[in-house]
Amino acid sequence: MKLFKSSYKNASDSDLMLKVQQKDAYAFEIIYDRYASQMMAYFYKMLWQDKVKAEDFVQDLFMKLVNKPELYDSKRSFKTWLYSVAHNMCKNEYRKQEVRKGTKNSLDDGLQVSGGDYDHDRKLDVGAFNEALDEALMQLEEKHRSVFIMRFKLNLSIKEISDSMDISEGTVKSRIFYCLKKLNAGLQAYNPAKKEEVYG
Questions:
Q1: Is the pLDDT of residue 102 over 90?
Q2: Where in the chain do CATH 1.10.1740.10 domains reside?
Q3: Which residue in 73, 71, 62 sits closest to 34, CA to CA?
Q4: CATH of 1-103, one of 2.40.160.10, 1.10.260.40, 2.40.50.100, 1.10.1740.10
Q5: 53, pLDDT greater than 90
Q6: 107, 136 in Cβ contact below 8 A?
Q7: How far apart are CA 75 and CA 87, in angstroms?
Q8: Which pLDDT belongs to residue 99?
Q9: 171: which residues sit within 8 A by CB, 6+ positions away?
Q10: For a pLDDT cut of 70, what percent of the chain falls above it?
């Protein structure tokens, strides 16, 4: 397919990826501009809010795209394919970190996100709640944390999450339900009205 420079920005992801596979640098720039910030947000939330690590993973992700663009199957949505690659990168990183960090995989031991030192005003503060929510998310299993972040932080649809993680839409919904149930139990000290600002 022939694309004129003026039409690149309106081209579909699939058309751009065909050009990337033909070593078209400008097409890659457009793809990067469309998705780099989304991928940064995803990696930041998934990788312990480590900005440097997230930036490294974004770079690695797009290097994979440049070096092996043929891995993209044009029959799939590019967006969900890209998230599936990012998701697998995170899973591999968790495996590497398991022994070193002994990361908790559930909230069963009790979620310590509030205490007697928090005064009433702090409990009602949206910033404080979001901070506690991020801490709580990192204590969930990767499979649950990932669906929550994709759905509520990055606004992916149930179908997009299903395609990205290669699981059924029913499984996505059940994981979201489980997530919300666990998070609600651990964050009861915070005003429910504030929680709606994050979940909505």
A1: no
A2: 1-103
A3: 62
A4: 1.10.1740.10
A5: yes
A6: yes
A7: 20
A8: 56
A9: 162
A10: 76
Residue with tokens 């009205």: 193
Q: What angle do CA 124, 113, 136 make, to 5 degrees?
A: 105
d(CA 95, CA 158): 26
Q: Which contacts of 159-167 are long-range, i.e. CB under 8 A and separated by 24 or more positions?
A: 160/77, 160/79, 160/80, 160/83, 161/83, 163/76, 163/77, 163/80, 163/84, 164/80, 164/81, 164/83, 164/84, 164/87, 165/84, 165/87, 166/84
User: Which stretches of the chain are assigned E, i.e. beta strand?
Assistant: none
Q: Is 183 exposed, middle or buried (0-12, 13-18, 19+ CB in 10 A)?
A: buried
The topology (CATH level 3) of 108-200 is Arc Repressor Mutant, subunit A (1.10.10)
Residues of the chain with CATH 1.10.10.10: 108-200
